[in-house]
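Example record

One chain of 451 residues, shown exactly as stored in the release files.
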Amino acid sequence: MNVAVLLLLGLGLLEAEGRCFFNRTQEHCVCYNLSQESIGSIIQCLPASVVEFWGGELERYIAFPISDLDRSTIEMLGSLVIRKIIFGDLLVPEILLARVLRFFSYTRVQELVFESCIFKGRGSWAEMANQDLPILSLHFHNVTSAPLMGREQDFSSLSSWLETLQELAVTSSHVTSLPCGIGRVFRALRSLDVARNSLGDESLMSAFCEGAFPQLQVLSLQRNNLTSYHSVCKSVQLLPELQHLDLSQNKLTADLSTSCQWPLALQIFNLSNTGLDEVLTPLPPSLEVLDISCNHLHAVDVSLSSLKKLFLNQNMLQAVPPIRNYPMLDTLDLDNNLITELPWDEVKLLGHLRDVAAAGNPYNCMCSGAGGLQALAGTGHLGQGWPQGYTCHFPPHYQGRLVKDVPVLVLQCNSAAVIAPVCIILALLGVAGAICLVRSRPGLVQPCHKV
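Predicted structure tokens for this chain:
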């Protein structure tokens, strides 16, 4: 068995019987527990653009002789259309991975994924020095490996490739630190996802040191062990290109005596489910999407001239935030708050938005509580929750009733609808009375005399 075959197997050989399944329509091939007896089924994967290999234990292949490839094998690898390879549920000796990875340089694989894998031991990556790979996206999910601390030399050997990597994800893998020196290797990285790990405030500060991840635009720190709002802010200040930051599902606390400026380029900010009870300022002036759902907010009173989407669902808001503070807003989510009514003035402004959601609130269905919602629904801008998600809580005789079914008397509920016509009628009566008075007393108006 030559190196090309070993590479195509994805290092996924097992004693148990297995085979590959190819979906021609999706150009997707999945192989399970391949053995030397079932190796022939891998041939059907050659036209695939995505190939998955699941199941395997590779320690017995550590001593497998791996030599340089001949010209025909290199040409064969270069002719394959495989763009993405997924390795799952594998025990991978790192020393074997270090010996095989360089052969990916002959392929057109752009994305490499390791899911539920165990990387055993430490390999020598010297053979990868000055080696370029076409892989631009690298994902690790639920993997186990040696700690990253003290491995700067290994990453240095891989620097020719890692300096061109654009997307890196290491999720649900118990990562506790990202050494500063490692971050400096990823000079072209645009997206970093380290969600569902064990990163703390102090480790975050060292991870994003001077010169680390200089081109980073998207960063997910979702569900780590972050606790300080301002500490996280200071940690990412050295990421000038950062446009999208996800801090959701971290329990953050804020020191109101200090202030911190988030990166000015930030456009998308996710602070959902972080335990905040108020919106802290300053926020980035160019922010376009702000998600502060699932918190303990009682009010939101900030001005963001560039904001387009605001998610406030599952808070404790009792009123709609001032829409005039967000002149560019097109999407507003107010689901599951404590809002009892939508004032007519706000309804007029909300009617200019593209998408509004306000289901699951305890509406008072007298006047604007029902009328405002019905008027807003008439514009077609209420989300999918209408009408089932909009029910009355007050008054008692309407409790549990859908808002859309509540009869609304315009003259009773909309004072503007009453006052305006009355004023017009009074004005007309006044004009008519004046005309009658003039006609009944012709001498009342004296003409001007020429001098």
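Notes: Residues 1-6, 8-17, 444-451 have pLDDT under 50 and may be disordered.
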